[in-house]
Amino acid sequence: MRPVIPYVTAALLFGLGVYGVLRRRNAVLVLMAVELMLNAVNLILVTADTTVRTQLPHGGQVFALFVIVLAAAEVGVGLAIVLQLYRLRASVAVDEVPLTETAPTPAVVAGASTGEAR
User: Which residue, 6, 42, 46, 94, shows the most beta carbons closer than 10 Å to its own?
Assistant: First the structure.
């Protein structure tokens, strides 16, 4: 087997994933781009496993399995965060996410304790 073709394919997939992470504004599309990058890494691990069997038998396949498990956990946590963001902001645009938490003003807290609507 010629390992050049899977390595080039993995490099293209990884580059496409990096482009998707850097250019997309939608959080779901960013998660899909991260999954694309993880699949490129899986392709590299399995290809390396088939070309270098003498040192560590089935090592690349085991690492690929670990990457698949981590990707599943990332999808679960990432989608939970995206759904909570959509519930709070009604948008999943990444550039609209506040990175710092602002403390509520005392007037808002006092109004909330008396039952007044904000």
Answer: 42
